[in-house]
Amino acid sequence: MNTKSRDALIPYLTVDGAARAIDFYKAAFGAEELARMPAEDGKRLMHAHLRVNGHDLMLSDAFPEYGAPTAAPAAVTLHLAVDDADAWWNRAVEAGAEIAMALEDQFWGDRYGQLRDPFGHRWSIGSPSRK
């Protein structure tokens, strides 16, 4: 694990199609791939380590034979606090993210919206409003 510190909380996603997810996260969120470990079956990824917006994100394909979860969580949102919500939003939508909540200036002072990636995970993007 290539984290800067042992004191961290790192989201770990289980997806159906981890290699495709890595490609999507690179296109949508500018992810940098740090590590990729193929499974013995040659079809799935046992583990991958990405860096998104300067922070770690790990993922793998589903491995039900090891008791790993197989479905995307419905109650989890990954939040990206960024410098320019519009730029990040547009890149993600162009890469294929589905709009779940439109990007708008919110009452709390942020420009904020939510997207759903092709693998079932929800992402929010926010930055201070420019108004």
Question: Could you name the key traits of this structure?
Answer:
four-stranded mixed beta sheet, 2 helices, 8 strands, 2,3-Dihydroxybiphenyl 1,2-Dioxygenase, domain 1, 2 domains, VOC_core, elongated, 18% helix, alpha/beta, 131 residues, Glyas_Bleomycin-R_OHBP_Dase
Instruction: Let me know the largest β-sheet.
Output: 4 strands, mixed
Order of helices and strands: EHEEEEHEEE
What is the average per-residue confidence, as pLDDT, rounded to a whole number?
91
Give the tally of β-strands.
Answer: 8
Q: For the terminal residues, how far apart are their CA atoms?
A: 41 Å
CATH topology of the largest domain: 2,3-Dihydroxybiphenyl 1,2-Dioxygenase, domain 1
Shape: elongated
Order of strands side by side in the largest beta sheet?
A: 1-4-3-2
Low-pLDDT stretches: none
* Secondary-structure content class: alpha/beta
Which CATH architecture of the largest domain is right? Answer: Roll
Percent range for helical residues?
10-25%
Name of the CATH superfamily of the largest domain: 2,3-Dihydroxybiphenyl 1,2-Dioxygenase, domain 1
Strand content: 35-45%
How would you describe what is shown here?
The chain is an alpha/beta fold. It folds into 2 domains: 12-66, Roll (2,3-Dihydroxybiphenyl 1,2-Dioxygenase, domain 1), CATH 3.10.180; 77-128, 2,3-Dihydroxybiphenyl 1,2-Dioxygenase, domain 1 (Roll). 18% of the residues lie in helices and 40% in strands. It has helices spanning 18-29, 85-95; strands at 12-15, 32-38, 45-52, 55-61, 77-81, 98-105, 110-116, 122-128. Strands 1-4-3-2 form a 4-stranded mixed sheet, covered by helices on one side. The radius of gyration is 15 Å and the shape is elongated. The mean pLDDT is 91. This is Putative glyoxalase superfamily protein PhnB. Residues 6-128 form the VOC domain. Pfam families: Glyoxalase.
